Amino acid sequence: MSLRQKLLLVALCTLALPVAGWLYVRQMETLLREGQAQALVASARAMARSLVVVDAPLPPAGPAWYVERTPVPITVDGYADDWASLSPWAQSFGRNTKVMLAEDDRWLYFYADVRAPQRHRADAGDRLVLSADHLIISIASGEDAQRYLLASAAPGPTTAIALDADAGVLPDRINAQWQEDGSGFHVEFRLPRGLRLDRFGLGVHIAADGDNEPLSADSRPLLDFSAALSQELSRLAPDGVRVRMLSPDAWLMAQSGKLALPDLPAAERPGWFASLVYRSLLATRLDDDSAWAEDAPRVDLPEVREALQGKPATAWRAGEARGSVVLAAAMPVTVRGRMHGVVLLEQPSRAVPLLANRALFGLLLTSFAVLLVAGGVLLLFATRLTFRLRRLRNAAERAQANDGRLDGPFPLTDATDELGDLARSFARLFEVVGGYTDYLRTLASKLSHELNTPLAIVKSSLDNLDHAGLPPEAEPYLARARDGVARLGALVRAMSEASRMERAIAAAEAEDVDLADIVRGCAEGYRALAGDRRLETELPGEPVPMHVSPELIAQALDKLFDNALSFTPPGGWLRIALRPTAEGADITLSNQGPPLPAAMQGRLFDSLVSLRDKATPGDAPHLGLGLYVVRLVAERHQGTASARNVDDGVAFTLHLKGMPRQRLG
Q1: Pairing of strands 649-656, 173-181
Q2: What phi and psi values does residue 638 have, to the nearest 5 degrees?
Q3: How confident is the model at residue 617 (pLDDT cuts 50, 70, 90)?
Q4: Most exposed: 287, 466, 548, 651, by fewest CB within 10 Å?
Q5: First vs last Cα of the chain: how many Å apart?
Q6: Is the distance from CB of 611 to CB of 598 less than 8 angstroms?
């Protein structure tokens, strides 16, 4: 990872700013909602107390039958087709009975669905009817009450007969319809609205259950939507709030107000994106709006169920209008410790989403601008720092390519920061390395020049001693001294030759030649010198033209072959290969022999470095200048020299690009 990428990664830490701001906006939105919820709960509590104080017609405590409003008259035929729209709110009675009650302007309709797979049939007038399947129905109007026995021996019309002697205005029989299917039986009947019934009771006897005790009807009050209670709610309801009064069974008893929002100009209305941002980032605790938006006679909501347990409750839901929310507060209504229902207040609002969205968008814009500025500043700083470091690296690489010698002033030495200190340290280091390298380069010529005179003095002294006549026992020492002087003379001549070779390489001239012909000619000349060693060549079939010095190339190959031949065992192999490259050509000379030590692979082409064992007496001295000459030839051709271990041997390669062409004129 580059320095710029690392600094950009560090710049991403500024993202903690918008995250912290987002958490703050969420907390602020939560506080706003809690404050609004507390205000609505206070309004609901005040309304509940006011309903008790003004003696409003509250629903009775305890269970009751709810009578729904039917938009069309119901045909009394014992079938549930006309009750389809009301069936979702059927009221359970016992384990196996569903009851529905409805009314229109003239009639009060009753429908009971009883699950009884095994049937015992009898008509209401039969002597054994009480041991068969039957219903006990009770109705009451004010002080008048009557009970009826309803049973049938077959599907179709039937009559419920009265069980009490005097019931006042109540009828002595009820016409009903009795229908059956595989799962049980259905009973349907109607009574005139003019009877003004206020209570209804039902008892179900199924003979298959084995219960033979006398049956009684469970009488409960009849409830329906109250216009008087709705008018009372309208007087007490706050502005902009819908109020619903619910019975202890969560049936809708009265309602006032609508969930209406004030009109806003089109430009100020929140769009779909703002609504999505609010719901996904700020208000993740919103419930779905389908539960409260339906016009249902029974309001079964979590806050209503909690209020029916005697605890005030609130809930937030998404509103019907885009970008709006609805706050609901449910408050129990109790009279003398008895639960008479729940007051449900619902208040629509756009204020909380608008404030939260504005705060969030403002925060995001500010954070984005800060992030851009910080990222841009860090990017500029990283770019400048990278550029300065690259200047240091390039200068160090150039000095390394020049054997530690600088080709000009080291960059950034006048800077006052840490990079300036580093540059000055590098400059001093390369000055020392360059001076030492120059000393090593001129050491051979200096030694050869300085040693010529002492060697001449020693040689003349030995000649004078020989002419002076030494005793016979001194002759071996004189011969040994002459041999040492001869070897020193050979060393001096080799160092002088190396110095002259450096100057010759630097002054060599290039020409356009076929490099393949040069390598092929050298390889043919080496075959006679290889002896019993096998020499192989790998040359391209096409010419390899290049602007080089043929003499230098041949001299470098001679040095490489001489080095390889000295390490190749008898019967071994040598291989010379020429391969064209995109920048020039590679000449590789491989030989079988011991591998190169890992510590010496990078120093083989330096001056005065050799891997040969110490020369035995009588052998010519070896100074390790051959591979150094190979390196000088490669550098003269703008290339490099390298060595590597291969299978069962070593490979030396000359990477050549060609000598630069000189301009005429």
Answers
A1: unpaired
A2: 60, 35
A3: very low
A4: 466
A5: 50
A6: no
Residues 385/29, Cβ–Cβ less than 8 Å: no
How far is it, in rounded angstroms, from Cα 337 to Cα 347?
28
Half-sphere CA count of 240, side-chain side, radius 13 A: 10
Q: What is the mean pLDDT of the chain?
A: 82
User: With 60 as the cut, is the pLDDT of residue 614 above it?
Assistant: no
> How far is residue 243's CA from residue 257's CA, in Å, rounded to a whole number?
6
What pLDDT, on the 0 to 100 scale, is given for residue 286?
60
Token representation of residue 249? 């069974």
User: What whole-number distance in Å separates Cα of residue 628 and Cα of residue 620?
Assistant: 18
Q: Is the dihedral of CA 138, 141, 142, 146 positive or negative?
A: negative
β-pairing, 97-103 vs 91-93, is: antiparallel
Specify the pLDDT at position 620: 47
DSSP state for residue 298 in the 8-state scheme:
B
Is the model more confident about 297 or about 430? 297
Which range, of 80-89, 559-568, 615-624, averages the lowest pLDDT?
615-624
The confidence score (pLDDT) of residue 461 equals 81
Structure tokens given for 260: 């209406």
Spatial contact of 321 and 348, defined as CB atoms under 8 Å apart:
yes
287 Cβ neighbours under 8 A, 6+ residues apart: 315, 316, 317, 318
Q: Residues for the chain: how many in total?
A: 665
Burial of 661 (0-12, 13-18, 19+ CB in 10 A): exposed
Report pLDDT digits (tens) over 229-270: 999 999 998 888 899 999 999 999 999 988 876 555 555 555
Which stretches does DSSP call E strand in 549-624? 573-580, 585-592
643 and 596 in contact (C-beta within 8 Å)?
yes
Rounded CA gap, 564 and 561, in Å?
A: 5
SS3 state at 513: strand
Among 252, 253, 322, smallest CA distance to 289 is for 322
What angle (nearest 5°) sits at the alpha carbon of residue 6, between those of residues 2 and 9? 140
Residue 561 token pair = 């072959």
146-155, 180-189, 366-375: the lowest-pLDDT one: 366-375
